[in-house]
Each structure stands twice: as C-alpha cells, then as structure tokens.
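Case 412 in the screening queue. Each case pairs one protein sequence with one candidate compound; here the compound is L-rhamnitol. For every case the pipeline is the same: read the inputs, emit a complex structure as tokens, and attach any notable structural observations.

Predict complex for case 412.
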Amino acid sequence: MRMYELAKEKYAALGVDTEKAIAKLSQIPISVHCWQGDDVGGFEAPDAALSGGIAATGNYPGKAATAGQLRADIEKAFSFIGGKLRLSLHAIYAETDGRKVERNNLQPAHFAAWIEWAKAQSVALDFNPTLFSHPMAASGFTLSSIDKGVRDFWIEHCIACREIADYMGRTLGGKTITNIWIPDGFKDIPVDRYTPRKNLADALDKILAKPTEHNLDSVESKVFGIGAESATIGSHEFYMGYAVSRQVLLTLDMGHFHPTEAVSDKISGVIDYVPGILLHVSRPVRWDSDHVVILDDELQTLMTELARHDLFDKVHIGLDFFDASINRIAAWVIGIRNSQKALLKGLLEPTGMLASLEASGDYTSRLAMLEELKAMPWCAVWDEFCAREGVAAGYDWLSDVKQYESDVLSKR
Ligand code: RNT
Ligand code: ZN
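Case 412 output:
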C-alpha cells in the first residue's frame, strides 16, 4: 500500500482528515520576501550599503543585481513550491530606468514590471516602504526624528508607498499589505524617549489619513537593533497601542522580542483587538539575525496555533529572513517549504481530542498524546501534497538549484 494511504488511515483513526488538511494547505497564502535574493540591497545603487541596524552577513556568489535577475531567481525558487504564494516587495526594488527617483517621488509606474510579472505568475503583491539605507536615515531616525524636514520626507515616502500598494491591490485583485518598519532608536540612554514616540504617532496619523480600498496598513515593532540598543521608538507597546487605537494591522516578527518570548503566545492575546496580524516568520539566533527558517519548535508552535483556531483570515503569513552565506534560492526554498511543512503538521493535529483532554484536567494524557503525535506519518502527507502540486517531494529540488547555480548564478 502507498505510504500516503497508510498515513491517511492512521490519521483517520484520530479523527483527522488528511484530504482536508492537504486542501487547506494549498489555499493558505505565504507572502515571500523578495529581499532574500539580494541581501536587502535593492536597485537604487549597485552594492548599496544596508543600514538601519539590520545585517545580511556572508558573500555567497551569484546574488541578483537587477530586477530581471531577481525575478528569474524568484521564479526558480517558486517552481519548487506548491500552494499559494504572494511576493513582498520593498520600495528599494523600484525600477527607474537608470534615472534617480527620490523615495518620496516613487510612483506605481516604477513597479509596473513587477506588477506585470505578478499577474503572469498569478501571485499577489505586498509592499514595504524602505526607511533605511538612505542619507535621510543616517541620523538613526526617520518618522520620529526631531527634524521636521526628515519626518516630512519619510511621511511623503510612506504616503507614496501606500498609493503604490493600493494600485497593486487594485490591479491584481484583492488587497496589498503595506508594512511599515522603521529603524529609529538610541544607541545610548536617552533623556527624552517620549517626544520621538509622539512624533512617530503623529507621522503615522498623517500617513494613514487617506482611506485606501485595496491596501491594508500594518506596523512592525522591534525590541532593539544594532546601534539602537538603548531605546527603540517603535517598540511593541507603542505599536500595540497604535494598532488597537487606529485599527490597523500589527506585524509580529519572530526576531523582534526578547528571546524567551514567543510570537505563538502573542496571537491570541491581540487578535481580537486589531483588524489583523502580519507575521514575519524568521529565525533569530541570539539576536534578530534573520537566519533561514527551519522546522523548529517555535515555527511549529506558531503554525499549529493558527491551525488550532483557524486564524487564516486574520493572520497573514509573511517571511522575513536573509542569509547571504548560502545559495539564496535554496535559502528561500528551505524557508518556504519549512513554513508549509509546519502548517501541514498543524492542520493534521487532532485538536478537538487534545482540547477535551485539557478541559477534563487530564494533563498526563495531553502531554503523552502531544509527544506521540510527533511520530505520526505527516511526511507521507507532505509528499502527497507535493505530488499533487507537481513539485518535488524530497530533496530533489536541490540538484536543480545546483544546476541553476552553475548555469546562471556563477556567471553573474
Ligand atoms: C527589521 C524588520 C524588517 C526588515 C525588512 C527588510 O528588523 O524585521 O521587517 O527585516 O523590512
Ligand atoms: Zn520583519
């Protein structure tokens, strides 16, 4: 008998329908970040320096240097992935035909090729204003700056980005999420941490003043960044209050909290108070290092949490990691496939049974079952999902990526 049939029976004995899980998995969109492909460089200038307290370390050869190369690499990565994908762009990925266009003057036209590509790939787009890697962010402050000129420049940039996102959503059908993350913070202990936060709230209010139809706004907090160790203006408490009071989405990045805090625990705490959550699925190793997502306990707990309460309408899954030390296409494939594997495992959980053990106070059986479930044959269901989606089930994709590396990447 085929492995899948055996697995299906084993799960059915626990009341779990593997067919339903496979069908559901194929419908859950994952928003893949474009910036894994070029170490968050963008196309404003060749080899632009990354700033804002984030870092892509490594110098693996073959990174995308043009939008055409980046799109080809993304297509390659996507060819190994089943299910529904979106692509998340940053403003620095604008295509301006070699002309210098300031960030506050960006227009939908500068993303025309991306939109065209997205249409052809049946992929929806998400968007991010870029408030780093720019002379106007050199002070370490953007929307919260004491300098009104600096604030106004970034307010204009964010307004331009929202309009681009709205256009993307309108053109591609559905909604584009615009995620605002700023690097603002103090290296050393500040005297006044209140004024910058007031500035930030005021700037955000100006950015969000005009309603949009095809765009959803989200704000992303952080605990600290390199060079901003003493105070981060856009902290969790700040954005939590902001998102709840303004009814915008809250972005929860797995690398943006104290290492003993877990995003999986935060979702049920905030979900009823905001219109939605955007996840930045990442892997912090000792700090917000943005390592490639692996199938570890926290990823599993997070995805299982979404499945347990069927939160897929309100929780949007986005990825955020960038490793420059390995083949960048492989990095995408590993991270996306792991996210989907964790989702599938979550969807295969006999949650009702576990919840009734819990409700009856039988914590012994709850622990026993949770541990036994780890050895259930979910891999056979994963293979079946891949087969139905027409993508390689095992590690077969890797030789294809290696081939692409020698045919394409190594010639760049
Ligand atoms: C930075 C944030 C932010 C960025 C991307 C490039 O700490 O996580 O989301 O990683 O916008
Ligand atoms: Zn993030």
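Case 412 observations:
- Residues 28-347 form a domain with the TIM Barrel fold (CATH 3.20.20.150).
- Residues 62 and 410 are 6 Å apart (CA to CA).
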